[in-house]
Amino acid sequence: MSGKHALPSQQYHVFMQTFDALLREAETAHGHLCAGQILGVRLAMLGCERLGIDDPKGLVTPKDRKRLVTFIEIDRCATDAIAVVTGCRLGKRAIKFRDWGKMAATFVDLASPLAPQGDTPIYKAIRIAALESSKQRARDLYPNIENKNQQQMLAYRELPIAELFSEEWVAVPIHPREMPGYKSGRITCEVCGEGINYDRETHRDGKILCEACASPETRYYQSLTKDQLSTTSKAGPETSPQPAH
Ligand SMILES: [Zn+2]
Ligand SMILES: [Zn+2]
Fold first, then answer.
1. Where along the chain do its domains lie?
2. Long-range contacts for 144-152 (Cβ within 8 Å, ≥24 apart)?
3. For residue 33, how far is its CA from the centre of ligand 1 (angstroms)?
4. 184-221: per-residue pLDDT in tens?
5. CA 81 to ligand 1 center in whole angstroms
6. What is the pTM of this model?
7. Does domain 19-178 have CATH number 3.30.1330.130?
8. Residue 214 C-alpha from the chain's centroid
């Protein structure tokens, strides 16, 4: 992807990595370039910029590394791009997934604590959501491009921030046990014998239970029946690029 489509109204001059460099990284991480990558890169760059975080991954200076926790409200293409830009990873507990099906993310600045509520620290954060009207703006800009993904890919590079996103400053409580790097005791469920981390156990009738044993009705899985066991599926995953949100 060339850099011929310059970003018009937003200057990322303080940002260590350029839009195009981040987009290439996002494409590699995600497996393809799509409208969601472009939207996600711009959304996350805006979040970092609003918080004054120049170098979230600590590529040049370590001062901003580990300063961010990012809540993401959708598991779609843009989610991967947000992880690439911020350096936040689910496996480092720096991404908190809230499955709300919304193209929105909240960037929490751990270096900006507000007054705590009880034992839970609260941090200043910026929540950014993609505007529903951005899809219409893409249609307005490129009415002759039939393919929605192509149409949005072009438009989302060019549209000014105010036409793509809404922004709100918010306060986000994060309990110490939810923080990256929290060291928890390891406890064993007395029913299934599996280990439980991060204080996720339930105490009931003098017993320690994991979530699956404490509330079987909330399990996301059930044991296979004999019939199901003998059935095999050869369906593969769908990987074609989709329009963003
Ligand atoms: Zn995608
Ligand atoms: Zn259990």
1. 19-178, 187-227
2. 148/35, 148/243, 149/34, 149/35, 149/241, 149/242, 149/243, 151/243, 152/35, 152/38, 152/39, 152/243, 152/244
3. 6
4. 888 999 999 999 999 999 999 999 999 999 999 999 99
5. 9
6. 0.86
7. yes
8. 29
